[in-house]
Amino acid sequence: VVDADGRSVPFQALYRERRAIVVFVRSFLCYTCKEYVEDLAKVPKAFLEEANVTLIVIGQSSYHHIKPFCSLTGYPHEMYVDPQRQIYKALGMKRGETNGSVQSPHVKSNMLLGSIRSTWRAMTGPAFDFQGDPAQQGGALILGPGHEVHFFHLDKNRLDHVPINNILQLAGVKPVNFRNKFQIIDI
C-alpha cells in the first residue's frame, strides 16, 4: 500500500504489531464510501487506543487523493491506497455489483443525489479522474497481531457495508453513537 506522502508500506506491516480494522472502499468519489468514511471519522482515537486497535481505510486511487479525501470526510485515522488493486484482488474483492436488499445504516443520500454529487466532485476536482475503478467492491477485515484473521467481509454492492458498531464490537472497541438527531428525554 502507499501512504499520503507516496511511501510504500508492506500491507502486513499495518497489523503486524497490533489488531487492525481495515476497511477497503470502492472509490474516493463514491458517495456511499464518502458517507461511510464520514462515520468512521466519528470513532474517537481514545476508543481505539483503549482497545489497542488501529483503524485503517484503504482506497484504490493515487496517493494524491488521500489528503483531500481525509479533509472532505474529516477522517483522522490511517489511510492508504492500493492503486493497482493488488490486495483487493488477492483478497477476492469483486468487480461489479450483485443485487441485494442490504442498506448501509451509514449512507444518508439516495442514489440519484449521491451520484450527482460524486460526478460533480470528479468534474470539479483538480485532476478529472474517477479515483479508482468505480466497479470495484470493497470490504472490511479485522487482522492481527501477526497473521491472525478475526473477521472478513466482502461487500456485494455499494451499500453492503458492515455496520461500524458491529465491527468495533468484534475488535473489542466501544461502540459509537452515530445519531445526529437530538433525543427527547422524558423528565
Shape: globular
In the CATH classification, which architecture applies?
3-Layer(aba) Sandwich
Number of helices: 6
Q: Helices and strands: which structural class? A: alpha/beta
Strand order of the largest sheet: 3-2-1-4-5
How would you summarize this macromolecular structure in one to three sentences?
By secondary structure, this protein is α/β, with parallel strands linked by helices. Helix content is 27%, strand content 15%. It contains six helices and five strands, in the order βααβαβααββα.
Give an account of the 3D structure.
- This protein is 27% helix and 15% strand.
- The termini are far apart.
- The model has no long low-confidence stretch (mean pLDDT 84).
- It has 6 helices and 5 strands.
- It is α/β, with parallel strands linked by helices.
- The protein has a 5-stranded mixed β-sheet.
- It has a single domain, classed as Glutaredoxin, CATH 3.40.30.
- A hairpin with a 5-residue loop joins strand 4 and strand 5.
What distinguishing features does this structure have?
187 residues; 5 strands; five-stranded mixed β-sheet; alpha/beta; Glutaredoxin
Question: What's the SSE blueprint?
Answer:
Elements: E1 19-24, H1 31-40, H2 45-51, E2 53-59, H3 66-73, E3 78-81, H4 86-90, H5 111-124, E4 139-143, E5 149-154, H6 164-170
Parallel strand pairs: 1-2, 2-3
Antiparallel strand pairs: 1-4, 4-5
